[in-house]
Design brief:
Blueprint: H1 4-12, H2 20-29, H3 34-43, H4 48-55, H5 59-65, H6 74-94, H7 97-104, H8 123-137
Helix pairs in contact: 3-6, 4-5, 6-7, 6-8
Length: about 140
């Protein structure tokens, strides 16, 4: 059994979202399990309903997956790791996770007047949000 401290260190070492090869091998070489979902819940201020929408699963399934001994399909593992990696980038850009959550929850012209959080339900949406974060880093303040 891996200690909680060791597991948290692995989670915090998720590769940069823009490095697809590292993300791919991270997912292949790590056990993406309930602890990742619990960390995601700790990381964000969003509700289980919102997080389950991002992951395209029901709230009941999300809550069941947060218990030890659950296994995930590969596409869910990928989705979880990419959202966590995006959170690392967003927290870096906005300096605090609360500020990043606020940006995700604010209507934005680059997202057709929608909140960026509504784009987290697809891999391409996650990548698009990451591209916007990079633009903000380089001076595009929207």
């Amino acid at each position: 059994m891996v200690s909680q401290a060791v597991q948290l260190k692995k989670i915090k070492n998720i590769p940069n979202i823009r490095n697809y090869a590292d993300i791919f091998f991270y997912i292949r070489n790590h056990t993406i399990d309930w602890s990742y979902l619990n960390y995601l819940k700790e990381l964000t201020t969003f509700s289980d309903e919102v997080i389950s929408d991002w992951l395209n699963i029901s709230v009941k399934t999300l809550r069941a997956y947060r218990k030890p001994e659950t296994t995930f399909k590969d596409n869910l593992k990928e989705h979880i790791v990419l959202i966590l990696s995006l959170y690392e980038h967003g927290t870096s850009v906005f300096e605090h996770k609360e500020n990043f959550d606020q940006w995700l929850n604010t209507k934005n012209v680059f997202f057709d007047g929608n909140e960026p959080k509504n784009y987290l339900d697809t891999i391409m949406g996650i990548k698009f949000i990451d591209d916007r974060l990079t633009a903000i880093e380089y001076g595009d303040n929207v």
